[in-house]
Amino acid sequence: MKCRWLSLLLFATLGLTACSESSPPVHKAKLFTLGTLVDVSVLHEDEATAQRAIDIVEAELAVINTQWHAWRDSPLTSINQQLTKGETITIDATTHAFMQQAQQLATDSQQLFNPAIGSLVALWGFHNDDRPEDAPPTTDKIDALLKQAPSMGDITLTATTLSSSNPAVQLDFGAFAKGYAIDQAIARLKQSGIEHAIVNAGGDLRAIGSKGKRPWRIGIRHPSASGVIASVETHGDESVFTSGNYERFFDFDGRRYHHIIDPRSGHPASGTVSVTVIHRNAATADAAATALFIAGAKQWPQIAQQMGIDEVMLIDDNLTIYMTAEMAKRIHLEISDAEVKIIGDNA
Ligand code: AMP
Ligand code: MG
Fold first, then answer.
1. How many Å lie between the centroid of ligand 1 and the Cα of residue 231?
2. In what helix (H) or strand (E) does residue 275 lie, and over which residues does it extend?
3. CA atoms of 240 and 233, how far apart (whole Å)
4. How, if at all, do strands 340-343 and 321-324 pair?
5. pTM assigned to the model
6. What is the pLDDT of residues 232-245, one digit of tens each?
7. Pocket-testing residue among 112, 121, 314, ligand 1, by greatest number of atoms within 8 A of Cβ
8. What is the SS3 string spanning 308-328?
9. How many Cβ atoms are within 10 Å of 122's Cβ, its own excluded?
10. Where residue 75 sits, what CATH number does that domain have?
11. Which ligand is in closest contact with the Cα of 172?
12. 172: CA distance to ligand 2 center in Å?
């Protein structure tokens, strides 16, 4: 009996502690970098600690943006000039790690994620802040580049050097650098003692911890209408990345041409309108969303498996929604009229 009173008392005390515990305040910053608006939200009791962490993130993102910009004068555009001339380039440890990660993801995706096709992306006019509204490139020009077949497999990396056996290799990390940058930002936040935060670059994000008593809740943009098509809550440390045909495109003669290029055809990938990937690592999620977009409704499960991605949602141009069983378990669709196909559900 005594024991029961004791446990009741303990329960009441714990209950009281939980009730009086409020969430730490949210500190927010908006940064314009990586070609988009980046929202950083940090939960911490101490404003100075939060602000210091945000400042570190801002500096880190600025460095990465400058380093990997594909068309404004940058260290990357110099690397590309040297690759054209067949030169060997001296690199530091950070660049080595970045290249190695991109090379591995290209291999895992069967070269659908192919950051060596910078010349094709440029040919389609996407190496521009605003794409001029002119005609798509001629088949001859596309075929000439396809024949040279640039890939990350042409790159030889050592700890301190980078070279290419194929002068057609032109690097463009538009499908990966945002994820890489967000991973670096989250690493800096963790080093600064932050346990609850979100770094959101135009809808692509990595979240750690929670938003006080509730999990972070993420909206996934509808690919062809305003508003969101689905939402998901993140737990622990997770990234959510979406590749969509609505992000960068131009219209010509009644047709839409978007920025995700199928390295096999040299044309914008057809059949898919968006792909969302959830994975712990943002760089992997970023590269995978692009690769699975290109893989399309038939091939994506095979590529996802090779890339070690369990949570995928692909929407095709009939607005049919394909998902892995793992994604279906946790995603909340905000529309009711879509056809949904769950792939690989052996339960
Ligand atoms: P994302 O929005 O992450 O899918 O990345 C699209 C961007 O990546 C494009 O704007 C190009 O800069 C670049 N890109 C286009 N096609 C490919 C591809 N097949 N592999 C790697 N990068 C690509
Ligand atoms: Mg991507």
1. 24
2. strand 272-279
3. 10
4. parallel
5. 0.93
6. 999 999 999 999 99
7. 121
8. CCCEEEEEECCCCEEEEHHHH
9. 18
10. 3.10.520.10
11. 1
12. 11
**150 φ, ψ (degrees, to nearest 5):** -65, 140
CA of 335 from ligand 1 middle (Å) equals 28
What local confidence, expressed as pLDDT, does residue 39 receive?
98
Count of domains forming the chain: 1
Here the tokens at position 160 are: 């301190």
Half-sphere CA count of 127, side-chain side, radius 13 A: 19
Q: Which H or E run contains 205?
A: strand 204-208
Tell me phi and psi for residue 175, to 5 degrees.
Answer: -95, 5
Pick from 247, 239, 209, 157: nearest CA to 41: 209
Mean pLDDT, the chain, rounded, equals 92
Q: d(Cα 276, Cα 278) in Å, to the nearest integer?
A: 7
Residue 3 above 60 pLDDT? no
Domain range enclosing 159: 1-335+342-347
CA angle 292, 305, 257 (to 5 degrees): 5
| pLDDT at 346 (0 to 100) | 53
Report the pocket of ligand 1 as residue ranges, CB < 6 Å.
113-115, 117, 121, 126, 172, 174-175, 243, 247-248, 259-261, 263, 286, 289-290, 294
Q: Which amino acid is at 37?
A: L
